[in-house]
Amino acid sequence: MNAVTKSASVAEIVTRVRRGVLIDGSWRPATGAATFEVEDPARGRSLGEVADGTPEDGLAALTAADDARSSWAATPPRHRGLILRRAYELLLRRKEQLAWLITLEMGKSLAESRAEVEYGANYLRWFGEEAVRIEGSWKVSEDGTARVLVMRQPVGPCLLITPWNAPLAMPARKIAPAVAAGCTMIVKPAPQTPLTTAALAETLIEAGLPDGVLNIVPTTDAAALTEPLLRDGRLRKLSFTGSTPVGRLLLSHAAGTVLRTSMELGGNAPFIVCRDADLDAAVTGAMTAKLRNIGEACIAANRFHVHAAVAERFSAKLAARMSELTLGPGTETGTDIGPLIDERQRRKVAELVEDTVAAGATVRIGGRIPAGPGYFYPPTVLTDVPPGSRISREEIFGPVAAIQTFEQESEALRAANDTEFGLVSYLYTRDLARAVRMSERLETGMVGLNRGYVSDASAPFGGMKQSGIGREGGNSGIEEYLEQKYVAVDAAEPEPEDGELPEESR
Ligand code: NAD
Q: What's the whole-number average pLDDT of the chain?
C-alpha cells in the first residue's frame, strides 16, 4: 500500500466503525451523550470518540438481553450455528480492515493482527459447529425406579468483560459459545480498544444475530457500569478476562447473587529449557512465547528457567534473534514489534527491568526506552536474573526475557510452580519420560511441550490456581454457558398381575 492509499484507508476504516452503545439492535449515544477518546499507541494521536456508557446504559442493555432471552433460547441450534458460520466467513473476508483496526488501537504489527482475526474467527466457526452438538442423557436410576433425564439449557443473560490485548479474539472467545448455547449478553470492552469490538458486533448483526442478543456498552467507569449489573438478579453469568486483582474483586461482587463465573486471569508462565532440549527449537518457541502480542499476553513466557549447561548458548541465540527485530508502528511494513498499550504499561516494564538490573542481572540487549512518540519498549534479554526477583513474580506484559538457570529437574519444577498463577508453562526436552513427568507436575492449565504456542479454538484454554476458573474453547467451552437440568422421571409403576387390568382400563 502506498502512503496515500494507506492514509485514506486508515481514515475510512476508523470512521466506518460504530461509536455508540449497542442496545437492543440499535447503536445510540450514551445516556448524557458523554464520550471518550481512543488513542493510537504508536503515535499518541486520537482515533476519535466513543460513547462513554453509564450505569443506565448498562441496565438498559440488561433489560434488552433479558427480553430477548426466551426467544433466543428457543431458536433451533442449527440457526444459531449458521449465524456464527456466516460471521466467521465475513470476518475472514474483512480480515484486512479488521487487522488495521486492531493495529491502530492496540499497536501490534499487521501480521499479528491478521493472525488475531483468524484466531478469533476460528472460535466462531468452532462454536458454530458445537451449537448442534449440545447433548443430554438418559439413564436408569440406580434402584431402577426412575429414569434420569439430563438436559442442558442456556444459562441466561451474561456479562462478558474483555481486555485490550486481543480486542477481537477475546470477545469472540466469549460471544461465540454464548451465542451457540442460546444465551443473550452484554459485552463491556476494554476502554483502550472498543472499536474492534464494535466492528465484531456489526459483523455478527450482519450475519443475522437478532436484536437484543448482543449488547455492547463501552465505558471509562467499569466499576460503576458493572456493579449494578452484578447485583441484578436478571444477570445469570459473568465471564471475565483480565487481571487477577480485578478478577478477585469481581468474584467478590458475584458472590452477592451467587452468579456463575468464568475467569480468565493473569499468568506468569515459566519457559523451561532442559539440558537435552533441541536448542534451536527452544529459541524459536521462545520467540513466539515471549514476543507474540509484544509480550502483552496472559500466556507470554514470563520466566525463563534454562539448564545451566545450555543457558549461555540459549541466551546468546535468543538475544541474536531478538536483536534482528524491527521496532515501530504496527501499520508500517517491516515492523515486528509495535508499541506497548500506554505509558503506564511502558513505565511498569521499564521499572521491572531497572529493578532486576539493580538486583544483579545483566542486560544482553535492549533495556532502554527509545526517543520519539509512541509507547515503544525494545526487545530485551536479561541474564543472571536472581531467583525470587520481582520480575519473576509479576506479569511483565512486555518484550522482556528474564533468564535464570537451574541444575536439577526438581529445582526447575519447584521454581516453575512457585507462583500463585497457573495459566500455562512451556517445556523443552527431547526425553519422553521427562516430558511426561514434568508435564504432569507443572501446576498450570496448559503446557506447551516443545511448542511456544498453545492457543487453539479446539483446545480448552484456561488456568489453575489464581489464573482462573473454567475453560474457553475445546469441547468443554460451551458448558460454561449451559446449565444442567435433571428431570427425575418416575418409572416405579408396578406391572399389573397376570389377568388383572389396571383400574382405569376396566
Ligand atoms: P484489567 O483487569 O485491568 O481489565 C480487564 C477488563 O476489566 C477491562 O475491560 C477493564 O475495563 C475491566 N475492569 C477493570 N476494573 C474493573 C472493575 N472494577 N469492575 C469491572 N470491570 C473492570 O486487565 P487488562 O489490563 O485490560 O488486561 C491485561 C490482563 O488480562 C493481564 O493480567 C492478562 O494476563 C489478562 N488476560 C488474561 C487472559 C486469559 O485468558 N487468562 C487473556 C488475556 C488477558
A: 96
Mutate to test the pocket of ligand 1, among 193, 243, 251 (most ligand atoms within 8 A of CB): 243
Q: What's the alpha-carbon Rg for the chain, to the nearest Å? A: 25
pLDDT at 502: 62
250-265 core/surface letters (b: 16 or more CB in 10 A; e: else): bbebbeebebbbbbbb
pLDDT single digits (tens) 341-350: 999 999 999 9
- Which residues lie across from 424 on neighbouring strands? 446
Q: How many residues does the chain have?
A: 506
pLDDT at residue 10, rounded to an integer: 73
User: How many domains, in total, are found in the chain?
Assistant: 2
SS3 194: helix
Residue 494 within any structural domain of the chain? no
Domain of residue 132: give its range.
6-265+467-487
The answer for residues whose C-beta is within 8 angstroms of residue 192's C-beta and 6 or more apart is 38, 39, 105, 106, 164, 341, 342
Which residue puts its alpha carbon closest to atom 43 of ligand 1?
298
| Average pLDDT for 135-158 | 98
Whole-angstrom Cα distance, residue 300 to residue 269? Answer: 6
Same domain, 289 and 371: yes
